[in-house]
Amino acid sequence: MVTRTAAMPALPGxxxxxxxxxxTIVAIVCNWxxxxxADMAGTTxxxxxxxxxxxxxxxxxxxxxxxxxxxxxxxxxxxxxxxCHPGDxxxxxxxxxxxxxxxxxxxxxxxxxxxxxxxxxxxxSAAEGAKWAKVVTDVTAAVRAAGPLRGWGxxxxxxxxQLPAAPPPPRGRPAAGxxxxxxxxxxxxxxxxxxQGKVEHVLGYRPGTLPGQMVPAFIRRPEDxxxxxxxxQCHTDLAVYLAGAQRLTGKIGIVVKVCDARAxxxxxxxxxxxxxxxxxxxxxxxxxxxxxxxxxxCYACDGEVAASxxxxxxxxxxxPGAVGSGxxxxxxxDPRDAQIEFLSRLPAAERWAFWQAQFGACIRCYACxxxxxxxxxGTCITEKSQPQWIPTTIDGKGNTAWxxxxxxxxxxxxxxxxxxxxxxxAGLRLDLLNRRIxxxxxxxxxxxxxxxxxxxxxxxxxxxxDPQEFIY
Amino acid sequence: VVRxxxxxxxxxxxxxxxxxxQIEADLVVLATAMVPAAGALxxxxxIAIDANGFFQEAHPKLRPVETLTAGIFxxxxxxxxxxxxxxxxxxxxxxxxxxxxLTRTTLSREPMTARVDEALCMACFExxxxxxxxxxxxxxxxxxxxxxxRMVARVNPALCEGCGSCVAGCRVGALDLAGFTxxxxxxxxxxxxxxxPAW
Lengths: 472, 199
Description:
Chain A has helices spanning 34-43, 65-74, 94-111, 129-146, 176-195, 239-248, 258-269, 335-345, 348-360, 367-371, 396-409, 419-423, 430-445; strands at residues 25-30, 52-57, 78-83, 119-123, 201-207, 214-219, 252-256, 278-283, 289-290, 293-294, 311-314, 317-320. Chain A is α/β, with parallel strands linked by helices. In chain A, α1 (34-43) packs across α4 (129-146), α3 packs across α13 and α8 (335-345) crosses α13. Chain A is elongated, with a radius of gyration of 25 Å. The mean pLDDT of chain B is 88. Chain B has helices spanning 39-45, 84-103, 126-130, 165-169, 182-192, and strands at 2-4, 7-14, 19-25, 114-116, 136-142, 148-155, 175-177.
């Protein structure tokens, strides 16, 4: 038996496993199928590696990605989740919700660069003692091949992969004339709404104290509507303020860009906003700028104003209802997709090094949380101390857990407004994490967040035939 | 069943001795094949079905006629193809179980149920969407004048079976499952995952 010292930093996946080294694998199993299946393996005297340590929970539905992170953080070399086959769940379909959750956080783990040989999911029924023995044997072999997990939450040595740069700014920047026209229509519409008493407040933009800067504005008096403005610097997703504002006031009008309108749809879907007290003023936004070029998020924008809009403000005037321009802001492909593709093609260890360097720069200011329309929880999971799933210390472990869980909690919800990465003082590419998981949701569940207010988020739903190619 | 030398030969296996066997017979009567029709009813009553589509009991040995939906019992061919004596025995058991429920003045349930910390709940109601037993419900919190201040989710412990699907889906961590609390699992993971055990 070779002992390992935890202090040695090395890349995860470095094959340094000595002969006779037995990996530590945490197996979280459901009470009714796999736990009984493992029991069956024991009573039929099947031999399999003594590398798994089992944790019994009632159902795969109880298994949270926090468990997996905590196991790795504590030093597990691998994690195995196992439960009943689809259709056999003791609790009707807990495993089908679990399958979607596992698929999403597996995609995220993989994108973060965790060696895929370390995380496994299997369906093992109470009668499948032999399958359990085989699964444990295979998983042990895979984890053994991956080697001891070192450096969870540690900066890696060596050269960091460099992301390919975004292409130069495309032509066709938002025309200044269009912006002034939109601003004029907005002012007139908001003044009218306030005068008619249709809304008590309007949530919009006004010029800030810096040249060109636009800041959120709460307008109460009709004569103040002239303060409202519009430009390609209207970054803030005003939906962030909506739930709080609705607690303090009655009828409210809100100015939303195409991306913000999708975030608003999500909030309506999650019952965070009272629709009956809301007037949605959609702006057929010609795109916003990041520095002097079109913001990356605008490449993914299809220009379709969400159907929940009561008015649409176009350069040509105000139209009732939702009127989409239907024109993409840029014909060029989303540069983030090329960057995601680049990262996905790297060996896991290099991807890990990239993200650990990113997370290493995080100062845990939680600005990403403050600007996110979906981070509306009164008490964030990171502020919970009983138990403390996410270490609050600003170190690799704490930062890895925080950034992972933040991204996971947005799975199937994030509309890609990219406010988190815009405000990050450390310049973390949170947009890549969000976009990666959003692409996974689209590919796997054919779901785009914020497209409509019908149905629930994809992780609170399932299809009996959801893909499960990653499950034993 | 094959015809050999003018007689019918039935091939099968003796499951006790694990030997293949053949029986020569003059007349073979085949039971009519049975196809379960449990699908729609199962989703309405929220009870599990097995791999073949028949209703599934709560436990094959200890709770053979109960389902996981309290108060619903299964009997006869709804459970699996059965002969008449088995069906009658099971029906008697179901009747006795129902009487047992109906004669009681109070209902006792498993203590492993989910609970909502209403101070934390953000009322996104994903727990309501994922609950297979309709045990989570939307509740209005009112002030003294009866105005609704906010909404929260609440778990009806009489309906909750304790699967924990709602708990794992709750982002704010307002839900917890008695017997398998976050704290208990957190501590277990801390003990299990350490690479060099103390012993």
